[in-house]
């Protein structure tokens, strides 16, 4: 028996959002609409129904109502001082809407249970919005986190995620690694495609928890480097950036919020604190509860997959 597909509104489909968009398009249980400030060839090529918006509450509300959306998922990656305002308008629009009563704000990072204020710039963006969410009524929401995107270990033609060689410790495109800290700090990573499959399953689930975690593999950068070297049979050009180097960068760029250097320094602090390592017990419990039909790849498995496929 066929049922009416649930309409999911995605906002801020740039890099990561493409995976969720594709997985929703492939699933008969859902229809997808995208809310954006601009026209995008990729969305046109995928025949996605796109609504233009300036991300004000009025505009989002009118789109949620006219599209009959049941849930809103945000991937907006905006300057940190805009994050709260933009997400507040998304939340208010959901509250006022006729039927959009589920909301996933743009988080997609690490262990926010233990490190809610890392990276440091989340202290003035995501954390205040999390407080607003907690006070809200009438909306079911979850903060979805996945550790690092494992795709950063892949060559750039295999993933929608553009390389971030200064930020992520391993640079597979130039075959080198500049590891932050000792390299033995705990990390977690998940393949973007599998994150997308998990989001789709969560959208089909009857109830949500305030935070949702998925992880492909818990590891360290030293182990990841060994895995890469073994898989490809060649040594990476390796260097380390110590905790005191990162501290020095933070002191140098602390007043330059919005600059790339500021962001990289504070992501380094998050990385050596083990902030990407989503809490194991909760993650595994939620894997059983929501995601038992998804195979989450380890790094070695993803490297093998990327070897076999033109695109992951
Ligand atoms: N865990 C990880 O390793 C990892 C890695 C990368 C990203 N992330 C997180 O994943 C999420 C999505 O990242 P992404 O790389 O997919 O993002 P992205 O492609 O850089 O940006 C996503 C969208 O944000 C919107 N946007 C950008 N600047 C904006 C502004 N000034 N005002 C309003 N909207 C703006 C744009 O949407 P429109 O142009 O359509 O309006 C853009 O397409 C973010 O939360 C990011 O922090 C996590």
**CA-based gyration radius:** 19 Å
**Sheet having the most strands:** 6 strands, parallel
- DSSP strand content: 15-25%
Span of the ends, CA to CA: 33 Å
Element-level helix/strand string: EHEHEHEHEHEEEEEEHEEHEHHHH
Give a topology summary:
Layout: E1 6-11, H1 16-25, E2 30-36, H2 41-45, E3 49-52, H3 57-67, E4 71-74, H4 80-96, E5 102-104, H5 126-135, E6 140-141, E7 143-145, E8 148-149, E9 170-171, E10 176-180, E11 187-190, H6 192-204, E12 211-213, E13 217-219, H7 221-232, E14 237-241, H8 243-253, H9 260-272, H10 280-290, H11 299-308
Helix pairs in contact: 1-6, 3-4, 4-5, 7-11, 8-9
The site of NADP nicotinamide-adenine-dinucleotide phosphate (NAP) has 23 residues, from helix 1, helix 4 and strand 8.
């Amino acid at each position: 028996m066929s049922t009416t597909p649930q309409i999911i509104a995605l906002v801020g489909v740039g890099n990561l959002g493409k995976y969720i968009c594709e997985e929703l398009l492939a699933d008969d249980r859902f229809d997808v609409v995208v809310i954006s400030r601009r026209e995008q060839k990729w969305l046109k090529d995928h025949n996605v129904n796109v609504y233009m918006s300036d991300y004000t509450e009025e505009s989002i509300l009118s789109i949620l109502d006219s599209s009959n959306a049941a849930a809103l998922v945000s991937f907006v990656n905006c300057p940190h001082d805009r994050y709260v305002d933009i997400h507040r308008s998304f939340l208010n629009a959901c509250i006022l809407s006729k039927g959009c009563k589920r909301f996933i704000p743009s988080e997609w990072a690490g262990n926010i249970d233990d490190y809610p204020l890392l990276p440091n710039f989340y202290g003035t963006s995501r954390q205040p919005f999390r407080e607003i969410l907690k006070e809200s009524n009438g909306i079911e929401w979850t903060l979805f986190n996945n550790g690092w995107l494992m795709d950063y270990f892949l060559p750039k033609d295999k993933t929608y995620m553009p390389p971030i060689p200064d930020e992520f410790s391993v640079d597979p495109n130039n075959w080198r690694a500049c590891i932050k800290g000792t390299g033995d700090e705990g990390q977690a990573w998940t393949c973007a495609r599998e994150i997308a499959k998990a989001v789709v399953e969560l959208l089909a689930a009857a109830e949500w928890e305030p935070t949702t975690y998925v992880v492909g593999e818990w590891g360290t950068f030293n182990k990841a480097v060994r895995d890469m070297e073994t898989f490809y049979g060649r040594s990476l050009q390796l260097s380390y950036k110590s905790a005191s180097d990162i501290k020095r960068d933070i002191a140098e760029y602390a007043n330059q919020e919005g600059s790339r250097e500021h962001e990289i320094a504070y992501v380094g602090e998050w990385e050596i604190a083990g902030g990407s390592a989503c809490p194991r017990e909760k993650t595994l419990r939620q894997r059983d509860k929501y995601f038992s039909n998804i195979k989450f790849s380890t790094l070695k498995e993803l490297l093998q997959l990327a070897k076999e496929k033109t695109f992951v």
